[in-house]
Amino acid sequence: MLSSSAWRPFPRYIAEPEPVEESAEVTAYEHDLIVRYAIVGIFVILATASLALTKVIAMPVMAGVIFGLVLGPLVDGLVRYGVPQQAASALVVLFFIGLLLGAVAILAVPVAGWSDQAPAMMAALQTKLAGVFAFMDEFKRGIAAMTGKGAELSVSQGNPLFDIALTSSAAAGGMLIFVATVYFWLATRRHLKARILRLCLGRGARRSAGSFFEEIETRVARYFALVTVINLGMGVLTMAIAWLAGLPFPVFWGALAFLLNYLAFIGPAIVAVLLLAGALLDAPSLLSALWPAAAYYALHLVEGNAVTPVFVGNRLTISPFLVFIAFIFWLWLWGPIGAVLSTPIVIVAMVAQEEFARYRREKAKADVEEAQEAQAA
Predict the structure, then answer these.
(1) Largest Cα–Cα distance of the chain, in whole Å?
(2) Least confident of 126-135, 247-256, 333-342
């Protein structure tokens, strides 16, 4: 009998299988990094849930702090001229409220006038957009046939007057919280900053915290100043378009474009649709009513792709993708107000990250210098 080794063909050319190395264990650094990311993820989830649950209070408080950062330089200017901090804060808040009331007054007169003409406007729009409405009805019937559900919208069975009262009360309470937050932030921000700096241990930490507050105020105020100037230009150009198109209340269209341009992505689309609807009332055809909305949207494209990136992007380097993601997130979380606050919140987060990274670099450099001095000694 042959041994089993005789049946192996070309035994010297067959390599034995290499032993499989056991997987390396997770190092202490990798373990700490995983734990750190997990803690950050849990914190983000809990913070999002908390902001959603406390929307009624958190949204006006956040808006008040952001606008307090914007109005802070005005208060500092009054303080340098000898006005007390509390009096300067009150004057700035009253001036800001006056601007809001003026904007509401500008928008209220045309809205009240058009509310009386609402039935005639709807009848004119239905006549000129009969083909569009017929297509939408066919589309809804097709969707209903495919899904097996009716196309009618469900209407709330509650009392509409009670719903309006609740909404008005919530809006009034939110406005009071917003105004109070702006005032108290402006009146006490110096003391608040001093107390926070006293909590920081070490000269480097205090220096980083101080530069963090100054950089936040500078960047947020600069952002809103530049965006306000750009929106004012868009408002003036929109007023000119409305005047050339023969639309009633050109000042209303300018004020509407100025305010809604703060609402990125969605605001200009709303203005374009409203311009189209307003032009359809007196225009002889659909094509002749398109030019005001088309002219406005062309101006918006130039503003969004050429003007704003040059004047805002060069000074406040923010990724457009990051701005878009923040816009979508805060719009989902807090609605239109959250969309307006999304970019300032991103600016605050970027400044915090930059200052924290600079503090870590300075601390690491100081530790290396101390170690070298200890070795030299």
Answers:
(1) 114
(2) 126-135
